[in-house]
Design a protein that fits this description.
The complex is a heterodimer.
Chain A lengths: L1 H9 L6 H15 L1 H6 L1 H5 L6 H19 L10 H7 L3 H22 L3 H8 L5 H22 L6
Chain B lengths: L2 H18 L5 H8 L5 H22 L10 E2 H18 L3 H9 L4 H23 L8 E3 L3 H5 L3 H22 L2
Antiparallel strand pairs in B: 1-2
The chains are: A mainly alpha, B mainly alpha.
Chain lengths: 155, 175
């Protein structure tokens, strides 16, 4: 329903990953605006605060409100399923999270979007790209998950 | 309405429902990829099915205009698979990492830092791949009904039937 309202009222479709590019642009601008200007990619995605960035910020706030009001808010550095398999060391989890974040976003930008953009934004408009990318997201993810957590045990 | 406030409100609603649906959890995301817990798949599919019908109505009433992400098969497939690998390790996608941080999952923060670095890296190599990978299988903004040459609603109905079939099958298997 939110997707429909958003297309209706704001004329915007869902997507999250582009705003990571914009934030990166901001950070690089801070360190070296010359280098930023030399990168063609940032002329396509100019670092500005836009609808999407506010939307992504809203996800954080919305989730916070929902979890606090329902009592499910909990500070946790290592997810349960991770802890069962790889132990409770938060540094190890943090390092893996950091590097997998790099891989994930690199892939997302290459593909042109993330699950929100392709799954919710493109596929609702019946785009071929949405279907192709979504299948690849799950294919890659399922393969890694099967390797990491060892097959279909506990099914 | 101010577009920024509008975006913020949309995000708050989206985040609220994501958290209520429990799909921002690492355990739920990995559960889906381990094919053990299909909460995410159900959540996403219901959102997509409802969204399809609603957006199509808006299109036919000329209230909203399509903004279709282009299909570049090479980049879509390679990027999609790379994303999937990262997702399998991280357990959050870009949107849900914010949601996960919102409910106190601090490991999502490290993932987000990594994502910023990933975006920076991509910007660095963008010029070198823009004439190669990004041109493979470039099809433009095509839709499924267009390539099949049939009515939009026909495709939507197939998706709905497929989706309901999937839900039924998942329920039966107790996922």
């Amino acid at each position: 329903m939110v997707i429909i309202l958003s297309a209706w009222i704001s004329k915007q479709y869902f997507g999250s990953s582009t705003c990571f590019v914009r934030v990166t642009g901001y950070i690089e601008k801070y360190f070296s605006s010359e280098h930023l200007a030399s990168l063609e990619y940032f002329s396509r995605f100019v670092p500005v605060v836009d609808w999407q960035m506010m939307m992504v910020l809203g996800i954080l706030i919305g989730s916070f409100i929902s979890s606090v009001t329902s009592g499910s808010f909990r500070m946790q550095a290592v997810p349960n399923m991770w802890a069962e398999r790889f132990g409770t060391n938060p540094v190890k989890r943090g390092i893996v999270a950091f590097f997998s974040g790099i891989v994930l976003m690199f892939g997302a930008r290459l593909a042109g979007g993330c699950p929100s953009g392709y799954g919710l934004g493109a596929l609702v408009q019946l785009a071929v790209s949405g279907l192709v990318v979504l299948i690849c997201f799950f294919a890659g993810g399922i393969i890694v998950a099967q390797i990491l957590y060892g097959g279909f045990k506990g099914k | 309405m101010n577009i920024l406030i509008n975006g913020l409100i949309t995000g708050i609603l989206f985040g609220f429902f994501l958290q209520k649906g429990r799909v921002v959890r690492f355990d739920k995301q990995m559960g889906a990829l381990r094919l053990m817990d299909m909460t995410i798949v159900k959540f996403m599919f219901s959102a997509i099915l409802v969204g399809m019908v609603g957006v199509e109505i808006l299109f036919s009433a000329d209230i909203a205009k399509p903004a279709i992400l282009p299909t570049n098969l090479g980049a879509n497939i390679i990027g999609g698979l790379i994303f999937g690998v990262g997702w399998g390790f991280l357990g959050y996608c870009p949107g849900t990492s914010l949601g996960a941080l919102g409910e106190g999952r601090t490991d999502a923060f490290w993932g987000m830092l990594g994502m910023l670095v990933g975006a920076a890296l991509f910007a660095e190599i963008f010029p070198t791949i823009s004439n190669t990978i990004l041109t493979w299988g470039r099809e433009g903004s095509i839709t499924i009904p267009q390539i099949l040459g049939i009515n939009d609603w026909f495709v939507i109905i197939i998706f709905i039937i497929g989706g309901l079939g999937l839900f039924y099958w998942l329920e039966k298997k107790g996922l």
